[in-house]
Fold each of these.
Amino acid sequence: MIKLAIYGKGGIGKSTCTANLAAAFASLGKRVIQIGCDPKADSTINLLGGTPVTPVMDYMRDRDEEPTSIEEISQVGYGGILCIETGGPTPGLGCAGRGIITTFSLLEELELFEKFKPDVVLYDVLGDVVCGGFAAPIREGYADKVLIVTSGEKMALYAANNINKAVKNFEDRSYAKVRGIIMNRRAVENEEEKVRAFAESAGLDIAADIPRSADIIKYEDMGKTVIEGDPECETAQRFMELAKKLIAEDEAND
Amino acid sequence: MTDAFYITAAELADRGFDNTPDELMSHRHMIYSSPATLDFNSPGAKGFGVKRAGLAIPGSVMLLVAPGCCGRNTALLNELGYNERFFYLLLDDTDIVTGRHLTKIPKACKEVCDSLDYTPTAVMICITCVDALLGTDMERVCRKCEDETGVPTVPAYMYALTREKRLPPMAGVRKSVYSLLEPQKRISSECNIMGYFSHVHDDCELYDLLHSAGIKKVRELARCETIEQYHELSRANFNLVINPEARYAAQDLEKRLGIPFIELTRMYRIDKIHNQYRLLGRHWVLCSTTASTAARRSGQWRTSTENSVRCVLRWANV
Ligand SMILES: Nc1ncnc2c1ncn2[C@@H]1O[C@H](COP(=O)(O)OP(=O)(O)OP(=O)(O)O)[C@@H](O)[C@H]1O
Ligand code: SF4
Ligand SMILES: [Mg+2]
């Protein structure tokens, strides 16, 4: 099973990359689950034609009880992808990290993996690894690889470096390792050199190079990924290449 | 008097003490109490909470990780003879906000083990509510403790806030205390009873029924006095769960060690209890003679229990 967590600075394109990668895996015939771990709960929206799924935390808050089946807290989107959002507390209140932990233990109790039998699980995680809750996706049994999304912007690279250090901090036999960087271009001057310099200094591989693309925005407006909207376009092809690469690595590992 | 009776507190107050309804006068007749109250075990009764239960592994010690105000309620347990087995790591605000306490735990564990003149069989790390929000991976912390001390270390969670959830603390701690069991060859004529932290009454009919059904050895965690006896628990052919709080632990043993389990429901009516034993008998894949012996024994137990109940009722003059 491929289990990936995607981290990166706020607004850098984590959800966009995660959803496109999920769609790419699905179009290659894989059974995919995408779990948005962000109170904004917008991770899977472009797999669902723009209609969001009810986040787990919202479900619990509104009904004051735990769901009893996976169906109550998920939607099936493009390519059969099972979409789940942890959601979070009312902004400014509660604890978002705890929300992730609560959701994860709930999914475990509902035997999500045993029942859905996914080939690929993707976790789209909010911003930095700020507290224990945001490290939950890299724990044993969850993601075993991390992809860091960054552009050539200074603050994005800064965040990427922090995330890399945080994940390294946890490095022991059962935690996830950083697989590499997704360079999500922002048309910054000398972008490629800047990202490459960082990747080299951190000893990381650039797993994918995603161009700044008008297609992404065009299909996002229709609630779609580029994989769904225009699978032949350059951007879609880059995501397909990344998916194929990760599948090949996983198969080589087995 | 057979009709159900109730009265609100306001009505009772209005009537005044002298007009207390007869139904509430306990010395005039027997007052029926529903099974729900029989099941209830008040914390004041010093029953088994997570901390006491966490020490069920023979020869183990517990490191309680908590702020002082929260940890001190455990001091009550000292009266029950646990003072040699409890150790405290007290937390302050800075510990919690910075996560510093997590690096202190392995050090504290080491200190505890070094301070003892024997090597404990296991260290239980019990962490209370304060940590619930932090999302600490206690399994990982325990591995670090093991690296430090060489003693098996297991987490237990006193998260009072999950009491009404699907996996309440008392179910979680049962999984913890069985978690050191390792797979070994299972013996078809042996079983465990899982459910409580004190053993079943010596004269409970369950032992007799199990024996008459061909079970030669019935084990319970509470009867294990040594770690060797504890490890024998994983020889069981099956587990008999007599308290739903042990179901999660039984499921874990099924998953990890392949030991299946049968769950019995606690019931209060003799015919229902009898019926349950009959159904249980049918499930045993045993030769017909032992199964029928068990069936006959369960019939005898039924008669004798009915007789005792009749005696009690006569005595109570109902
Ligand atoms: N390669 C790209 N080309 C064009 N637009 C992009 C690209 N990547 C992301 N975007 C746009 O950037 C915006 C933010 O992206 P996205 O929501 O994926 O970021 P995020 O990292 O998930 O944000 P947050 O931290 O808020 O969750 C979106 O509107 C998206 O369309
Ligand atoms: S409720 Fe939780 S925090 Fe409070 S005393 Fe009990 S264990 Fe400690
Ligand atoms: Mg996002």
Amino acid sequence: MSSLSASAATHGATTPEAGAPAIPVVVPHARAVLLLVSTAVIALAVYYFIGVDQGAVSVFGNDMHVHEFVHDARHFLGFPCH
Amino acid sequence: MVKRIIGRGLLAGAVAGLLAFAFARIFAEPQIDKAIAYESGRDAAQEALDKAAGLPPDMGGGPDLFSRTVQADVGLGVGMVFFGMAMGALFAVAYLLCLGRTGRLRARTLSVLVAGGGLLGFYVVPFLKYPANPPAIGHAETIQQRGSLYLVMVLCSVVFLAGAVWLGQRLQTRFGNWNATLLGAAAYVVAIGIVMALLPSLGDLSDNVRLYGHHATETPLPLTDPRGHIVYPGFPADVLFGFRLFSVLAQLVLWGAIGLVFAPMAQRLLQPAPAGARPKEASPGAGSAPDPVTT
Ligand SMILES: [Zn+2]
């Protein structure tokens, strides 16, 4: 808790509510940043395959299997389709 | 800490995706079926018109790679659960970025707020400009533009939201919590409002104007024969409304579940002391064996 929560104190009133320990700043921290970036990249790739691939752009050329398989989810999640 | 938060985000996202799938299976699929029935009927009517006009039959429509049952059960389920997990992962990333920077907010309150931001940024705000459409709505000629426009909307909405939070935090010392929040929100509304005003309506896309005339959207209008008689109705308004309403509600279910499932887990992980006692686990000491940040 010690060194991590130090920077949290710079943001105005940080006295934790009674009984609750202060939340540490986790990011930035070199290894944490790497994990965050890779997580975000993978998540965005999944987002792309469900929402976009084989519609406006396609990584598998003309194949439509991914598109057709998640088709209903794509419409329902708000992505343009067809 | 990072790995554990991300893991819990994924778990919350998977649970949320399952709930959203159940919701979609019950409420959305009947609407989707009606939309597809409308589409087939319209295609048949169009074909009859073309035949009467002596035009060659249109070989449109791709092959059916999956049956409707597979699409409605497995495909929808896989899509919703994976989407939920992707959103849960992004949620966890945003949550981690907020940690320690949100003053006296409790861990579980922060969870609900971040989920609310996800709902707004990834879905509700883009929906205001380009709402979800069931099958049968959308011209094949414009899928590229529609796809790009939608992603531009999502990108702007998410980035501006992050910017508004950052701005609100910067203003907080000078204006206080309440006013800084309002100012951040106002900045967001203005910025996204400008983007929405600049982006074209789908009906204004050049291909649509050229092929179908000038209309606000791509929602199918009644099909008429050469003498102007309606031979097939326009897209049923109730189906469109139902589909969009359920689409919004499913996102509420999804993001609500992410926020609420994640909240108690994060509370236990980050502020594990309901009675106020200093827990042993929460003070690992800098540099001790398991890295407190990344594990
Ligand atoms: Zn479609």
Amino acid sequence: MGRISQYIWRYWRRYLFGGLCLLGTATLVMWIPWWIREAVRIIEHGGSLSDVTYYAVLIIAAAVVQGFVRTYSRALIFNAGRDVEYDLRNDLFAHLEKLPLSYYHKQRTGDLMSRVINDISAVRVMLGPGVLNFVNAPLYYVYAMALMLSMDVRMTLAAVAPFPLLIYVAHQFRGRIMKSSLEVQQQMSALSSHVQENLSGMHVVKAYAQEDFQAQQFIALNKDYEVKSMEMAKMRGIVNPVMQGINGLTVLIVIWYGGIRVMRGDLLVADIVAFIAYLNVLAWPTAAFGWMLSLVERGRAAMRRLEEILETNPEIRDEAASPAIHALKEGIEFRNVSFAYERQKNGHSALEEINFTLPVGRSVGLVGRVGSGKSTLAQLVPRMFDVSTGAILVDGQDTRKLALRELRRLIGYVPQEPFLFSTSLKANLALGRESYSAEELTRAVEIAKLDRDVEIFPLGLETLVGERGVTLSGGQKQRATLARALIMNPPVLILDDCLSSVDAQTEAEILHGLRAILKEKTCLIISHRISAVREADEILVLDEGKIIERGNHDELVRDGGVYAELFQQQRLSEELEQI
Amino acid sequence: MTEETQQEEVLGKAYDLRLVRRLWYFIIPYKRLFYLSLALLPLQQAFGLAQPYLMKIGIDQYIAGKNLLGLQTVMLCFLAALIGETVAVFAQYYFSMLVAQRCLADLRVAIFSHVQKLPMSYFDRNPVGRLVTRMTTDVDVLQEMFASGVITLASDFVMVIWIFGIMLYLDVKLALVSLALIPPMALAINFFRGKARQTYRQIRVRIARINAYLGEALSGMAVIQLFAREEKTYREFEKLNADHRDAYHLSNLYEAGLYSMVEAAGSVSVGLLLWYGGGEVLHGAIGIGTLVAFKEYIHRFFVPLRDFSQKYTVMQSAMASAERIFQLLDTPLDVTSPKNAVVPKPFRGEVVFDHVSFHYKAGDPVLKGVSFRIAPGEKVAMVGATGSGKTTTIKLLNRSYDIQQGSIKVSGVDVREWDLRALRRHIGVVLQDVFLFSGDVRANLALGDPSIPLERIERAARVANAESFIRRLPEGYDARVRERGSNFSGGQRQLLSLARVLVYQPEILVMDEATSSIDTETEALIQDAMEKVMRDRTCLLIAHRLSTIRNADRIIVLHHGEVREVGSHAELMEKQGIYYRLYQLQYEREELKLASHDTPAQRLA
Ligand SMILES: Nc1ncnc2c1ncn2[C@@H]1O[C@H](COP(=O)(O)OP(=O)(O)OP(=O)(O)O)[C@@H](O)[C@H]1O
Ligand SMILES: Nc1ncnc2c1ncn2[C@@H]1O[C@H](COP(=O)(O)OP(=O)(O)OP(=O)(O)O)[C@@H](O)[C@H]1O
Ligand SMILES: [Mg+2]
Ligand SMILES: [Mg+2]
């Protein structure tokens, strides 16, 4: 609960002021029965009408003032709940932005979404209506008790005799409600994860006629959710009426015991009426007590799930004194780099003992079989993952000692799997750059050979591309991500198989355009095609995470290893076609 | 944000009654339970209302008359009423929640199933996050409606009428004075109503936006981080978040105002009662017990009214959600099996495109009068520049979209007449956009059919050359696949999706760039292995690398959405058209490059 109080603390003024207003409201609420009692007493004794009128006016005036103060206090506290929700959601998002890729590989998007939306909203309910009742209930109790005590001590004690029962019931249900809430929230997450995944894979679902199977899975999860929610509802259903019943019991005691005393002549009917009025005032907080119990427990369960995110350490983050780098001077060096993914921790690694240098202005080509570790290697440079052992040096400095943002801004990265955001094409291209000139944009678009496509689009660069760029063709997406990296004009370019979905002619044109740029840049080029890497200053051949051959194209072809074989094969297949 | 979001904002006025009727449709299966819970309401109220009445008798008759025995009897009745009320309240809540949970579960399934049938074009326009909101958060708001006891609204109303009746019966004038505030209150409530609804609509739109944005940001987090976009993204998110908060600030104010007004009105009414009723008692027109009972009735009158004001806001919010949900459920299913769908038997793997024209957006044609025929068992390759419409052709073939002109026939029957499911069962597509589900490798390959023997899966994996790396995973075929297959390399994912189609064993095999991320060596192995699989199947292959399509019988060249050339490799080479040029380019590139640029060796020298 430590974290929650931090948030409440942030708005302490509002909570305090809201609390004071509640105190004011409660005061007025409490005086009204008192005045009623006075009025009834006058009536009972056959007093003057003007005295009755006096109290009646007091009551009405108090009611009106109370109306305003109450509006204000409720709005204030509920809004504070919303503000905490807002802060918490922002903070979560900011935290999520810091978490490394490896975290996202373990988490399901729908689950995270559910936490950021549904769990936060449960916390909000705890902090808005929950806090309101939390303040209100004791206030009402203390007030009512004080006033009742001032009227008659024995009677009061008799009236509140059932209250310990209240506490007992609350205690009994607390833990269970918490557990049940947690289960409901978890199941909600499972449900949204399934929906989220189903929807993002809709093209596959349709192509493979998987609708029924997906629905079956959904129905099972949904059923679970229904059962768990019902469990929760059952508890809510028991607690509330029991609380109300206990309140009714106090009324009963007052009439019974009070009646006996009236008969004995040491109490007035007016006292009974006033007592009942006070107990009526307590009816709502008492009932709300049960309700609050479920809100608070649910909020705590939700908060626990949020804390799971907030307490995840961003493993990849800036070290304390990270020097800023603005340009690459010497180059990039991999020194004895090994890396293993989590699931590989005890098996073999994705990369082993990688050593090479990429001097500034030069280029390194990476080839190798499927799953040999090329993308992994590339992702280590911008620290999407941290090396397990060894180090990657930029200008002689360990990348782990550099400011993350600066490091990443040095690099234009074209990932293997294109990802675009559902905004305009233009906004996507400008992702890495706040400001750029029109020429820069045109140039990048031209080099990536996106110009012809843009020409055809009725909206040109303003075309909306849909989520992940679904409304573009495979090649268009890929070229858009290339243009996106080019427009950044970074000193380092990493191209991960970035022309795989592009036809031969366009590829040739792009490579031609790129060639001029690549000369000024430091590049790491990954490809399955010799054509894309053959001009690199050094070509590394990866196999099962190890460098098995290195050298430039001519050397490698001459040495007659794996690369040479690959080269022959690609030529051969091309020659084959000629026949 | 897509255009749809704006549309949501101007959503027309939907009538609550109609919404409630549609919700009712989901309650019908649980009608009995529902009626049971309704039947408990009067019981619960009778027990509740008996209490002040018993109190009145106790005070007026027995306490005043000093009759202890009478008081005890009355109090025992009171206790019975109390217990009765508690039990009835629980039972009522329990049954109504049972109805709620069940019918909302049904509603969720209905939405989910409906969404499964929506045409692909819908998903092009609607962010995933928004649809997730409809199925989760929006339905939860409806649940809140049930939980807060909105169905008791009607009975609250009945209760209020009852109390009013009793009060009138006890004393007409007193009753009228006590409830003098009702008419102005009704006006005020009406005012809040309009306001509240508007804000709740806004809130629904805004929460959906947050969800959509969030979903996208989370799935593109790698890109956000790579491009150091965290701050900018955060600011955008914060803005959406603030919009959402602001809408609620407004609604909170309305809610607080409404609640406090009703609460205040209750006390004012008591004041009025004392002022007028006090006089009456003093004149001896009524007994003091009547006054006390009236006070109690006013209390009981305003409690449901106050609850009503709260339920009312919940109701408004629920209606705003229901609007969204039914709007989604009303989205027409453009692409569905016709009434008397055909499943041609025996199936012939023949595909005919006849003057097919298609556009995603009006005025932006993608395919223009495309015609071709693929004979059963024929292997046809489709080549063309990027964006020329190859993938689109495939999406039309399995009817992910409907064409605007022409016809597409599979096995001699127009795809629009086919049973959709059967059609897609016959056509296996390796999609260009690889997608794996989270789960394990085996489930991904078998795609939901647990009856497929492991052997068939293994055979497919072998052909797709996926076996070697699957075997090397510690858990083999049971290895965990993370969302979208993020724990596999790009090429591995492609191999898995290729293996998946082979397990599917379709009559028509379509491969869209199925080996684009695969190395040459592996690709060659796959091609050899595939030869046998492809032998007696109709195949449509799309590839940019001409080497990939070397065993195609015929080649279709698509250019800007038109079929430009059709023929065998040799024929097309002879024709010296687009294919010829493409071919020359790919083949000669190696030579060209060596000639026109310095080799690294030269540069070093
Ligand atoms: N869902 C969509 N909504 C709108 N336009 C689309 C959609 N999908 C594709 N397009 C557009 O239709 C055209 C053809 O796209 P298609 O995906 O068929 O190309 P392709 O030939 O497969 O290209 P590639 O080789 O790059 O995969 C492109 O201009 C593309 O932008
Ligand atoms: N997130 C991950 N968790 C666990 N293992 C992973 C993860 N990502 C990749 N791997 C494994 O690490 C190895 C190297 O993957 P990587 O993506 O670097 O290959 P690649 O050389 O880029 O292959 P491709 O040519 O197919 O893109 C593969 O065996 C892959 O299964
Ligand atoms: Mg890769
Ligand atoms: Mg395509």
